[in-house]
Amino acid sequence: MSDMKSLTAPCGLDCFNCEIYEDNLTDEMADFFHAKMGVPKEEIACKGCRQQDGNHFHLAATGGCATLDCAKEKQVEFCCDCADFPCSYLAPIADEAGRFPHNMKLFNLCRIKAVGVERWAEKEALEIRKKYFTGKFVVGKGQAD
Length: 145
Prior knowledge:
This protein has 145 residues and is mostly helical. The chain has one domain (3-128). 37% of the residues lie in helices and 3% in strands. A two-stranded antiparallel sheet has the order 1-2. Helix 4 (105-115) packs antiparallel against helix 5 (117-134). The radius of gyration is 15 Å and the shape is globular. The N and C termini lie far apart (34 Å).
């Protein structure tokens, strides 16, 4: 499995761009999570959803990742490969949308299906993430340029 595929969660989240992914985690971010959530600093860095089998501190409260479990059970690499795509695990929700990238999963999966995981990861994923958190919404147009 290519690095980009192995560092993309089945739900379409780009682990390689996440602020707690081990290669991206800064001392400041580690200090923030430690102070805010009481997580020991050595447990903050994440290796990615697939590498840690969904076992990371940010999923502890929910008992793991049901979406990952479902993808493994159905033996699909990405949710967009599933006959039930899209399902309720991927439904957008406004709660915490400003903090968590959940609502970009469907768009990412559609782009992965359209252009392939390598091209998406190399040319699109970071820009999608940036626009998600900093872009402006225009009714009838989506993201403003």
